[in-house]
Amino acid sequence: MQVLSSAGRFAPPDPGEGRRYTEELRVPDLSVGTYCIPVGGEDTQSPHTEDEVYVVAAGRARLTAESGTVDVGPGSVVFVPAGEEHRFTDITEDLTVLVFFGPAEYTRRDA
């Protein structure tokens, strides 16, 4: 067992950065991270080669994807399939999101 004590806690981005991603755990079939975007920050991510599940721990925003748009807030859980273009927009409260990649992030990138 491993306790991920810092997972899901807001950590502001470094100066000049609009977001922060911290990987909390990596095993071959799963990775877990905390994604933080402050009000006024920008989500510039590209589609991933792995499936993702987002669990919003704090904050409010809109998640826009090829398959639709949804408002998210604490407790929201959203699945985004591998390869789908998506990003958080309209961030009205500092956003903290737990991100689960299956398999681990970038595992399929070189496949």
From TrEMBL:
Pfam families noted in UniProt: Cupin_2 (PF07883)
Q: Which InterPro entries match?
A: Cupin_2, RmlC-like_jellyroll, RmlC_Cupin_sf
Q: What is this protein called?
A: Cupin type-2 domain-containing protein
- Residue ranges of the region described as Disordered: 1-22
Domain Cupin type-2 residue range list: 35-99
